[in-house]
Amino acid sequence: MKKNIKLTQLILGAFLILATGIVEGQNVGSSPEYIKALTSEWKGERFSDGRPKVSDQILERLKNISIEEAWGVLRNKGYQNQYEGNWQIMLEDEAMTGRVVTAQYMPLRPDLQNQIKDQGVNKEGRSPKGGTNSWPIDILTNGDVYVADGYGKIADGTLIGDNLGNSIYAKSKRGVIFYGSVRDQEGLSEIKGFNAWHKGQDPSFINQMMLTSINAPIRVGRATVLPGDVVLAKKYGVIFIPAHLVEDLVITSEVTGLRDEFGHQRLREGKYLAGEIDSEWTEAIKKDFLDWLNKYPGKLPMTKQELDNYLKERNY
After folding, report:
1. pLDDT per residue over 84-95, tens digit each?
2. 54 exposed, middle or buried (CB, 10 Å; 0-12, 13-18, 19+)?
3. What are the residues whose beta carbons fall under 8 Å from the beta carbon of 51, sequence distance 6 or more?
4. What are the binding positions for substrate in this chain (predicted)?
5. Do 281 and 145 fall into the same domain?
6. Whether residue 186 is found in the same domain as residue 212
């Protein structure tokens, strides 16, 4: 009997320790360990917060990829819920790419908001001044894109105005993607280089909504977004790309673009029939394509070594 009592006490003690750890672990901002677990398929360099550090070169090359090409590559790999469209865009003719920092907002509930403020300020060292909607901005670095789920709220759902917009651009040299709204769009438009994809704009201040998490998984319309995803934002929509897929997506899309350019040129020249270009290529067309690549008049978007390695592994 004493052994059973002792065993019960040990189990209860272990449970209390575990429960205490769970309560203490409910951070506003996700831990590096959690972000690494979410993005475990990424094998490259990471930031100190755990997010994948996709190279600036890949981010720059991604700007030239079409939304349709990126969507097609992801869909073929089983990622069918990474696109969201129907945005209001500040600079619609300028593409934006970057590494995602996520934030989630919910309708205000006072007891939860009090816990979030206590956790953020007293245990995570976040700023006690201003609203919690400044917290995601405080952690931005160059190349980051602030992506927020504002649950589509427009009036009283404005996550930033021009003051916070200036801070965002100063830190990230990018802009924002909000499933919600902004205020003072006229002031935001005066921030040179700043861009925004959002669902609406309104003169009201943020009201009756609260920040609930930073760098946790969020939903943006049709898309599921993780911290450290790479975003491709254009006037035709927004694609959120898992970090471990972005390099392959870029070169696959680049080669697809070259194939299309070659095919269109040969069709205009009348060298091949449309059915020959649209179906699996014959060995003669493949050889013609390789010869065309070797004489390409402009600068290839990838290195010759990258191209050779890619073509070796694909039946194009």
Report:
1. 999 999 999 999
2. buried
3. 35, 39, 99, 100, 101, 215, 227, 228, 243
4. 161-164, 183
5. no
6. yes
Q: Is the dihedral of CA 25, 27, 32, 36 positive or negative?
A: positive
- The residue ranges of the chain whose pLDDT is under 50 are 7-8, 10-23
Q: For the purposes of burial, counting CB atoms within 10 Å of the CB of 128, is it exposed (0-12), middle (13-18) or buried (19 or more)?
A: exposed
- Give 260-293 as a DSSP string: HHHHHHHHHHTSS-HHHHHSPPPHHHHHHHHHHH
Which of 181, 216, 242 terminates a domain? The answer is: 242
- Known binding positions for Mg(2+): 184
- The DSSP output letter for 26 is -
Binding site, annotated residues: 161-164, 183-184
> Can you tell me whether residue 212 is helix, strand or coil?
strand
Alpha-carbon distance of 206 to 301, in angstroms, equals 43
Token representation of residue 135: 């917290």
- Is residue 47 in a domain? no
Q: Binding-site residues for substrate, please?
A: 161-164, 183
> Is 273 part of any domain?
yes
Cβ neighbors of 280 (< 8 A, separation 6 or more) are none
Asked if 230 contacts 102 with a C-beta cutoff of 8 angstroms, the reply is no
- Distance CA(199)–CA(72), nearest Å, equals 25
